[in-house]
Amino acid sequence: LQRATPEDPTKMGVGKAIAVLTSGGDSQGMNAAVRAVVRVGIYTGAKVYVVYEGYQGLVDGRDHICQATWESVSMMLQLGGTVIGTARCQDFRTKEGRTNAACNLVKLGITNLCVIGGDGSLTGANQFRSEWSELLQILVKAGKITAEEAKQSSHLNIVGMVGSIDNDFCGTDMTIGTDSALHRIIEVVDAITTTAQSSTIVINCSSSCHSHQRAFILEVMGRHCGYLALVTALASGADWVFIPEMPPDDGWEDHLCRRLTDQRSLGYRLNVIIVAEGATDRFGKPITCDMIKNLVTKKLGFDTRATILGHVQRGGTPSAFDRILGSRMGVEAVMALLEATPETPACVVSLSGNQAVRLPLMECVQVTKDVTKAMADGRFEEAVKLRGKSFESNWNTYKLLAHVNPAEVKSNINIGIMNVGAPCAGMNAAVRSAVRTGILQGHHMLVIHDGFEGLAHGHIEPISWAAVGNWTGEGGSNLGTKRTLPRSMIEDISLNVAKFNIHALVVIGGFEAFVGGMDLVTAREKYEELCIPIVVIPATVSNNVPGSDFSIGADTALNTITTTCDRIKQSAAGTKRRVFIIETMGGYCGYLATMAGLAGGADAAYIYEEPFGIHDLEVNVEHLVEKMKTTVKRGLVLRNEKCNPNYTTDFIFNLYSEEGKGVFDCRKNVLGHVQQGGTPSPFDRNFGTKLGSKAILWLTDKLKECYRHGRIFANTPDSACVLGMRKKALVFQSLAELKLNSDFEHRIPKSQWWLKLRPILKILAKYKVSLDISEKTIMESIIKKRGVI
């Protein structure tokens, strides 16, 4: 199935009606999806209805199905749960209930249904669709609808979006609500870690000082899926994780106690164990928090605490990722509905990497059931594979880093790790992962303090497994970082590379790390000591490193901006109409301004990559003035710090203040360095952990390739790479190749994927801009693609 390409998307929906409902358990981000469906539906010319209380509202009809307006979905982006309600509906499970639902839709001329929920809700929607013709015949016979009405509503189109905090739906990388749930969990883990470390009891003895050992056991949601538990374990550096997909081997009790004892001997005072609520042993017997608590207390005598998080994971405001995910999926869902034909199978819209995808609904449901069956049959390796590449990658990284015993055979390889550029959240997670993976490979790991300056001045020291223990959740850069480029210190750097016998280098940082890496490659011609493999790991809030769609630190900064925008807007609650002008960081890269605009519901986001003039500013101001004359009371305008040297934040503030007189007043905020601070988000911890580990494994292979005549010699272009995420995969790209795609004056890549999201930002802000739908979104078969396992 491919997208149609009509001349004008604003006329695609004329004469059509769409209904949107949320069903099953609620999750954060559902409101963003509802808002996007309503607004994009109206943009295409369709009538859009919201169904209150899920399928129950569909069955009951009347005032449960209401036509939505643009303004009716304002100020809901930042709200958790679902404002249109959700309910478990027994009536819809019956033929009579579904017949009533069909009648209510036909009477309103609705033939397009968007369902946001879990696999049960989406399976119900597909059954409803498959029975549609039969239900219409029943209604015509009963005289409830006319033959003409049945003819006009002869086919029902269904599109699903998966809203579930468990991330238990196969075929999709992330379901709506999962990232927000991880935020809630990590907040708790950080709080527990802090209190455990500060309240450690120290017993003074005549000969030495012993710390009292503590263990914390945390149960997270996931009755059939261990995604939350697994990512929490990765993001918190937990000592053990129990998940349904991969029960522990027989004798796990002794193994667990050995692991905790080993950690104790390495100097750790705190152990963290994560348990998914559906965790079992190999025979299907549940493994509970209390069971583990009793085991650790009796066998080891540790002071053990168990915490069951429960529904706190469903609550709170949605993360920036979930708001953007919901908004993007809402757009894709409307397009899928309006392009559907009677032959089109019901589909689910989702993200794979950063790509919007459409997947056949029932294939996804089937693979989800296959996972449950594989677990029930004891085929656990297969269950992990069926969960998808993202889950499998997380599991493999966890297994690798969960080892405590380093390799017995040493490689005599020294790998240096440094941070370069401005500090950002997640850098420490990447360093920790790289250090531990290197030690497991038998390498000697060296850390370089203060970037290239530290390398030139010999601020280099070995680092141990235990030294990076709690680094995953720490913000900033523990190694110290500077923006200085190596070109003025190349000779000193080459001398220290030789002095400390460094065989490979991991450079974690922003655009300076990228340029510095190229400086080292250029200097290889003159300095043979620099003929070593080099990996650059992108880490900057600006997300401007060529070779990667995402940088470590950008997600944390985005969440900081989004939360701050929420608070700033809330500060005006109860006052007259107000517009906020907010300046974001990013240098010349408009990623933060654009994505924060999507997540915060901005009316405009000014960036360098999309030049604007006085006419554009005039259009924006007039548009906002007209909008504020309706029931809308808040306006949000974002400006990237270097978008234009003349149209400054003060200029834009003064312009909006003057033109808005009598309609709204203005306030301005420059967010500044708050965007670089804070503890890393779950995504940045996980992303940093994966990149650090993958970089060392690649270097290990590359060093074997480059070993000649008893020494390392790497001077080919592919021996100096950026490790980044491209669409759906982590890939290595040579610095030489990426140089061609870089704008060095403005420190940005020449092509950036997120610019394609700019029209969505404008459409959701009620601009009648054209949405480019020429790029085809093909429905992918996940069963054929996966093949036989």
Automatic annotation (TrEMBL):
Keywords: Allosteric enzyme, ATP-binding, Cytoplasm, Glycolysis, Kinase, Magnesium, Metal-binding, Nucleotide-binding, Transferase. InterPro entries: 6-Pfructokinase_euk, ATP_PFK, PFK_vert-type, Phosphofructokinase_CS, Phosphofructokinase_dom, PKF_sf. Beta-D-fructose 2,6-bisphosphate binds at residues 483, 540-544, 578, 585-587, 641, 667, 673-676, 747. Its EC number is 2.7.1.11. One of its GO terms (cellular component) is membrane. It is found in: Cytoplasm. Allosterically activated by ADP, AMP, or fructose 2,6-bisphosphate, and allosterically inhibited by ATP or citrate. Mg(2+) binds at D119. Residues 414-789 are annotated as: C-terminal regulatory PFK domain 2. SUPFAM superfamilies: Phosphofructokinase. The active site is at D166 (proton acceptor). GO terms for molecular function: 6-phosphofructokinase activity; AMP binding; ATP binding; fructose-6-phosphate binding; identical protein binding; metal ion binding; monosaccharide binding. Residues 1-403 are annotated as: N-terminal catalytic PFK domain 1. Substrate binds at S164, I165, D166, R214, M221, G222, R223, E277, R305, H311, V312, Q313, R314. Its cofactor is Mg(2+). Homo- and heterotetramers. Catalyzes the phosphorylation of D-fructose 6-phosphate to fructose 1,6-bisphosphate by ATP, the first committing step of glycolysis. Belongs to the phosphofructokinase type A (PFKA) family. ATP-dependent PFK group I subfamily. Eukaryotic two domain clade 'E' sub-subfamily. This is ATP-dependent 6-phosphofructokinase. It comes from Electrophorus electricus (Electric eel).
